[in-house]
Amino acid sequence: MTEHSDAPVVCDHRGCVKPGRERLFTGATQVTFIRTALALAVALYAAHERSLPLLLVALATYWVGDIADGVLARRTDSETRIGAVLDIASDRLCAGAIYIGLAWLDPTMVIPIGIYLFQFAVVDTFLSLAFLAWPLTSPNYFYLVDATIWRWNWSKLGKAVNSSLFAILLVVTGSVPAAVAVAVCLSAVKVWSLLRLVRLGMPVPSGCAVTAASAQARRPLEQDVAP
Ligand SMILES: [Zn+2]
To answer: What residue spans define the domains of the chain?
Structure first.
């Protein structure tokens, strides 16, 4: 018998952490960096030219790129927590640049865009990063923790409603009351999810950070020492 009492828990859930896999540069994170730089550059150029069509090109770059990095990560079996956090941060920059651009081109939309950006960049950022408190690879697998929060936020429908439908609504309808109503509904879903998450209780790491950091630094030398 070679089993250790402190051996890591082994499971076959696709969404649970695979520590050996974590690294900064994967094909998917490179796509994330490139699609973000490209979408930002096009959004800034759209602002420079005061051009709605260019801003829509930036929006399309953001969406296509956001789908592409996710698909690539899954197809190449290289989903990482690092990649998930980079993806979440990149989405906030892209949405911020594009929606501020939309507000600048159509100032009647400042209120719905303000409500949307607050929920997306503050409430939704907190929700999206919450997966880090559990041994999960990304929010896409949050159903392993809570199916209800996952369904409203990271199922295919949940993600589509939160990102694409709002921008389409702004541009296609041009209706301020409709945009305000949708932004308020999205915010209500996010706040409700946040309250449910807090009630659920997020795990907090225990122990001493200094001890953990020095143990981490010594690990390569001590990994062969029996417990
Ligand atoms: Zn598992």
So the answer is: 19-204
Q: Give, in order, the Cα–Cα distances in Å from 180 to each of 55, 154, 183, 223.
A: 21, 22, 5, 56
Ligand 1 center from residue 195 Cα (angstroms): 25
Residue 19 Cα, ligand 1 centroid: separation in angstroms? 13
If one looks up domain 19-204 in CATH, what number appears? 1.20.120
Contact 127, 190 (CB under 8 A): yes
Using the 8-state DSSP alphabet, how is residue 109 labeled? G
* Residue range 188-209: mean pLDDT, rounded: 95
State the average pLDDT for the chain. Answer: 90
Percent of all residues in the chain with a pLDDT value above 70, rounded to a whole number: 92
CA of 191 to the centre of ligand 1 (A): 28
First to last CA, the chain: 15
Contact (Cβ atoms closer than 8 angstroms) between residue 202 and residue 136? no
